[in-house]
Each structure stands twice: as C-alpha cells, then as structure tokens.
Amino acid sequence: MSANEQPTRPMARGRLILAALGALLLAVLIVLGAILPAEFNRDPLGVGKLSGLSRLWAPEDQTVDTTAGAARAREYDTPFRTDVIEIPLGDFMAGADRSELEYKVRMKKDATLIYAWEVIGTSEPRDFRFDQHGHTTPKPGEAMAVSTWKQAFGLKQQGALTSPFDGIQGWQFSNSSEKPVVVRLRLAGFYELIPSGQPGNEAGIVANVPAAQARPAP
After folding, report:
1. pLDDT tens digits for range 64-102
2. Which domain range does residue 28 map to?
3. Residue 193: which CATH number?
4. Which of 22, 39, 56 represents a domain boundary (last residue)?
5. What per-residue confidence (pLDDT) applies to 139?
6. Running DSSP on this structure, what letter comes out for residue 31?
C-alpha cells in the first residue's frame, strides 16, 4: 500500500441497516405508487391518479361509428310539435261506434314520436284494450306495409317510436267497461295531425280541446 492510499473502512452496521431500509422503502413506494396503478389499476396511495399513471392501465378509447345502424342524431323537415288529445269513449253498451276508435298521426320515414297516454274513468286494466300499430296509405292496387307494435290490455302506456315508413302510426282504443272513459294522449315529436274523416282519424277527434268538445256528436 502506498503512502497516499487510505485503507477502506467498512460501513458501520447501523448505517448499513438504514441504507437497506431506505432502499426497501423506496422499492415499496415505487410498487405502490407506480407499478400497481400503471399495471394493475390499483392505486392505494392515490399517486397514480395524480400523476396520470393509472391511465396506462386503462383500455384504449373506442370511437362509436354513428353511421352504422340506427342514427343517434337526426334532423327533420317536419316541424317539432306537441299536442294533447282527449278521446271520449262510451261504455260497452254504447256500441262499437262509440266505445272504440282508431287514432293515428301522419309520420315520415324515420321520424320520431314520443307519447304517453292514460285512461280516466276506470281502474280495471282488463276493461281497456289497445292495439298500437301503423301502416302506409297506398294508392289503389299498391300493397300496404304494416307495423304492429303492441296489443294488450292496460290503462296507460308511454314510450317512443320511429316510423319505418311514410304512413300513419297510432292506436286502436277499445273500452269494455260499464262506464264511459276518456283517453288522455300526450304527443311530442315530428308528425302531423290527421284531419277529421281521413284514414287514422275517421272518428273526427279534435286535438287540444276538452274531451266534451273533442268528438263530434253521432
């Protein structure tokens, strides 16, 4: 050993233990703060959320193809409108011409209608039947396209429909109770009311007036 060289002294045992504990603590922090959030979506310290490391675990974003299948957004030429139609129906003794009728609205293909109706005057669902359907209004000699949505007994219904063709959409309402009832129908969307006497409104129901004024006398 030359005169200028200094002998290497081993690290004190206490310092060695502290260094080992420090390295172990650092390794634990790296696992908890970086590896777990990035690789396993576990973030016990909250560091992954703050640093953005948790995004490394997340799957890639998926872009929705809005051109495939039913359109999620659409524009219409038909103006938006809302209406309330009160349809009076006689009891079953009044005869079919007073206790049941068909009420529809005119819709373009792919137009949307939001609806809600309820029956006032009876509390027994079996007393009232409805047939929700639609069809085209073809010229003589042309085939008719028909859409049947629901046939059931009940006192209320709400939902939305998109017309599969240019035509009329709506309901056949039938009251078989011992009392007259009123169907209160609320509509909103892109449709046109059908004038009195035309297919879909042969009964001549008038919209946006009280039930007593909504149906012409026989």
Report:
1. 554 555 567 888 999 999 999 999 999 989 888 899 999
2. 13-56
3. 2.60.120.380
4. 56
5. 86
6. I
Same domain assignment for residues 192 and 145: yes
CB 203 within 8 A of CB 103: yes
Length of the chain equals 218
Residue 72 lies in a domain: no
Distance between CA atoms of 39 and 34, rounded to whole angstroms?
A: 8
Q: Identify the residue whose tokens are 């079919």.
A: 96
How far apart CA 197 and CA 102 sit, in angstroms, is 11
116 is a domain residue = yes
Q: Are 105 and 168 in contact (CB under 8 A)?
A: yes
Give the DSSP letter of residue 34.
I
User: What are the CA-CA distances from residue 9 to residues 1, 3, 22, 113, 122 (Å)?
Assistant: 15, 16, 21, 89, 101
Please give the Cα distance from 115 to 154 (Å, whole number): 15
